[in-house]
Design goal:
This protein is globular. By secondary structure, the protein is mainly beta. It has one domain: monomeric porin ompg (Porin), CATH 2.40.160. The protein has a 12-stranded antiparallel beta barrel with strand order 1-4-5-6-7-8-9-10-11-12-13-16. It has a two-stranded antiparallel sheet with strand order 2-3.
């Protein structure tokens, strides 16, 4: 019995020694991956024509556009974006700079909501630059607050101007100020495939004043698009864009030259870009 006990004890010591050696040689467990809640992306795009809410901003010429976006996992977001514009519509200016921030919330897996603010800045642009010298300066800068609701691939957002709507007031030919102008945005982005999306948009601009000539500036704009993404962050799209209210936008006179243009006519807009 003593020999058996001694043999068992010795075997236990040998087993423990082997296990210790194996444990010492085994690789350490990998540390858990820490996912940052912060995401920063940049984008650059070339478009055949810049249309904002259906209206031509570059007088039929191409535009180079780009921006940077920040998003937090909790839903907060902020960003900057810029594009060239035409001095025919913005005398003294050739650049639009936008800044925005807000929050994207989730109600259920299918329902979401959003709220935020969006600012538009046009450095150097002044409506009265094209009028007799000595008139007070009138910029096109604008700021809006917005809120929206989404269900799967359908969304609605309402934007309200907290300033005169892009400089529309008594100095620029309106009966009164246009603070409180509303923009209704109903959009759908239906996924045809993982990398292909069919889009439809209808928007309505309700301006809080009329022109002194009696013309109503309110209008509806439409957009039908097909967008595709590629590997490496590349993307491209084709869209048909058009707006109503010919009485306001047809044969629009340039504020810098003698040119005229139908700023609301239907056009095909091509886009190519990349997100980093």
């Amino acid at each position: 019995m003593c020999k058996l006990t001694h043999a068992l004890a010795l075997a236990g010591i040998v087993t423990l020694s082997v296990q210790s050696a194996i444990a010492a040689d085994a690789p350490a467990a990998a540390a858990p991956t820490v996912v940052s809640p912060h995401t920063v992306t940049t984008n650059i795009n070339l478009v055949s024509e810049y249309r904002f809410r259906g209206i031509d901003q570059t007088w039929g010429k191409p535009a180079m556009q780009g921006g940077v976006d920040y998003a937090h996992a909790d839903g907060w977001y902020a960003g900057l974006w810029g594009s060239n514009i035409s001095s025919n519509s913005y005398p003294g200016g050739n650049l639009e700079l936008d800044y925005y921030a807000g929050f994207n919330g989730k109600i259920t897996d299918d329902w979401g909501w959003t709220a935020g603010g969006y600012g538009y800045y046009y450095p150097g642009a002044d409506f009265n630059r094209q009028v007799t010298a000595g008139n007070p300066s009138q910029t096109y800068d604008n700021f809006e607050v917005n809120a929206g609701l989404s269900w799967k691939w359908i969304s609605y957002k309402l934007s309200a101007s907290t300033t005169d709507y892009f400089g529309a007031n008594t100095q620029t030919g309106y009966v009164g100020g246009t603070k409180g102008t509303l923009y209704h945005d109903l959009s759908a982005a239906y996924p045809l495939a993982d990398d292909l999306t069919l889009g439809f948009h209808v928007g309505r601009t309700d301006v809080k004043s009329t022109l002194t000539t009696g013309v109503n500036p309110d209008y509806t704009d439409y957009k039908l698009s097909l967008a595709k993404t590629f590997t490496g962050g590349w993307n491209a799209s084709i869209a048909y864009v058009k707006s109503g209210n010919d009485a306001f936008f047809k044969n629009t006179a340039s504020l810098a030259t003698t040119e005229t243009r139908d700023l609301n006519k239907g056009v095909v807009v091509l886009q190519a870009g990349r997100t980093f």
